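Regression report. Comparing outputs from two consecutive submissions.

Submission 1:
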Amino acid sequence: MAAIFGVSPWVTPKELWLIKKGKMNPAEKMNAGQLQMGHLLEPIAAYFYAEKTGNNVYDDTVLYQHADHAYALANFDRRYTRKIDGEDGILECKSCTYHKASHWADGAYPLYYELQLRFYLAVADVQHGSFAAVWGNNPETDMAMPELERDMAKEDLIFERLDRWIWSLVHDVEPTMDDITPSLALESLARIYGSSDPTLPTINFPLAYEKPIRRICTLQSAIEEHKAEITKLEKEVEAHSVRIAELMKQHEHGVLETTTDKFLIDYVSKVTKRASTTLLKKTYPAIYNEVLTPSESRKLKVSVSPK
């Protein structure tokens, strides 16, 4: 759902389209352990949701199909029956890290999860659903349970988009990268097209591409100029720091108070341990070759030369 709407943090509409067409395989999950952890935490999230709400939570392993849209299939994490009125609802169990807990603050929920749950409500033909999101080990402070009521206007928009999506699959109309976050779009294109091929001929771009290409070239030059200025400023900081470090000797903290300001100076030792690749290669060459992990990337760069 989120990918089709272009709001997935992981997959673009174009990539999903190619996967559904059988033209590429899904990308290997780099966070397989995290996904497994999320699956294992589902019953814990469901348990505390039931404890805190009083709703009856139960498993439902049936695969459901929408009454009017045959392509729309769904199965759910859990179902529940509300204590207050006996109505059925759909429960989606989520887990996240602490730095994403703010996405669930004050009854909020991420848009990509909202689309998923609204799709489920439509397929099951029920009027409300809820999330049980956990991110720590204290259910009093590390859990959110926002509810979601069915909205037919939003539901119509969802299925309008889904109908167009299915039409694009049937009629071989490949999605574009329009309105996709640029960083995600570039990562997705790298997965779609794979490694560059040095045997292919140079592409001659039509003049319609002059504006973005010229802008890239200008921005690259500006970045290099700022890098040079940053380097100059960093060297000036180093020059002033020598006298300060000489005075502090082995002290970690210092302070300077003036009539208007209070400056805090930190000069703290930090120890970072990293494996020495040079020593590893020299001492254990077989192990060195075994642990080498290939890393591939592609970066677009524009340069200009006089004709």
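Submission 2:
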Amino acid sequence: MEDAEGSSGASRRGFLKLAGMGTLAAGSAIAAPSAGAAPASPRLAGPLAQPAPVPKAKGPRCVIVGGGWSGLTLAKYLREAEPKFDVVLIEPSSLFFSCPLSNLWLGEVIDLDLLTHSYVDAARAGGYVWLQAMLADVDREKRRAWTTAGYVDYDYLFLAPGIDYHYPSLGVEDPQQQAMIATHWPAGFRPGSEHLSIKRKLEDFEEGIFLLNVPPGNYRCYSGPYERACVIAGWLKREGIAGKVVLLDPHERPAIKADGFLHAFETFHKDHLEYVPGSNITGVDPERRKVITEFDEYDFADACIYPRVRASRLIEQFGLAKKNSPQFEADIDPLKYNVRGDDRVYVTGDARPMPFSKSANTAYTEAQYVARLVAARERGEDEPWVSPVTSCHSMVSIDPPMSISIESRYRHNGKGEEWDFAGVKLVEEPSEGLGKANVEWGRGLYLDLFG
């Protein structure tokens, strides 16, 4: 594979490639299977009440909602596991943008082209249909999904809608203030527009504090905020900017690869990064550009403010969220992934409740297992549970590019829904070799899913 090319910032061509990116949205409530249930969407009329413009199914139809790492992997591997499956991927965005490796683009270690890919290419390579639409409703009794392009009937439905942000976790209840924070200081862990905004922020940054934070709970990419702190601190040093990163963390040590990150903070970024552990954010004053913690207040010139992660609102809207879940994640069989009581509907990726890392390689390997599982069920067979694999490289220096890494699996301990780590491989000594492996990992996954 070719080496990653450096970037002098987002090119005009690169920015234009991202035009038209949408977001996954849900409309009305889901209809659970029940005797004599009414149609889920009697108000849908006209074109929405007609079949969507997809070919007639040639076999059991698998409908996937969400074209992130989990949904794309399912779309390809369902057909590999059972060639007679007919697969439709529903995703409103016109272009795939990868959160993984995006920090490297912010630091100009890679070019934007490495992160952006075509759903047309993915569908052609995987032999499935991509329907550019948003999900509007689902009737699980009739096995019908309504979209903004019409309805699609299914034999199996897979919901892989990803995450939303939960701003009340920051002590911010006012929707106007939530919108202000999201607009002016986006977290940068939902793909596309947020990343473009952060890139522009860095290019315009002149001096002062660039504030980042680590959210509580199981958030998207455990190492992501720490890696981003290193990348931005490296950017400030490279550009000779009189500023520093302040990273607020509710944990007493980094939540993952702690020794490696602490070593990097001290060795590479001592003059441009202040790490503040044990800092729980209790409020944000957007008008005064101030973040309040239990013990201190922090003024900032610019920021990426990261609330607690929650499952996409689609899960809650459809009545599939676990009771008392602080992150509104789906109530599914933790080993089989189907919605409880319904082996025709599955939830995968970052909306699932298991405490696996919300990261690309986890979603990628998890979806391969679910694809084999559903193919086996279609044949009347069983598929033994296989742990997803969390493989995570974190760039801690951009000059030169150096990374640390961790790989782990998971083990169900047989006690309800409790899990342990298994087979952890941790490398906390940064190296340029791991920096290259970081990029090549992404290239390998892109090649597999997009051809």
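Expected: both submissions complete independently.
Actual: both completed, but the second showed a warning that disappeared on reload.
Relevant detail on submission 2: The first strand starts at residue 61 and ends at 65.
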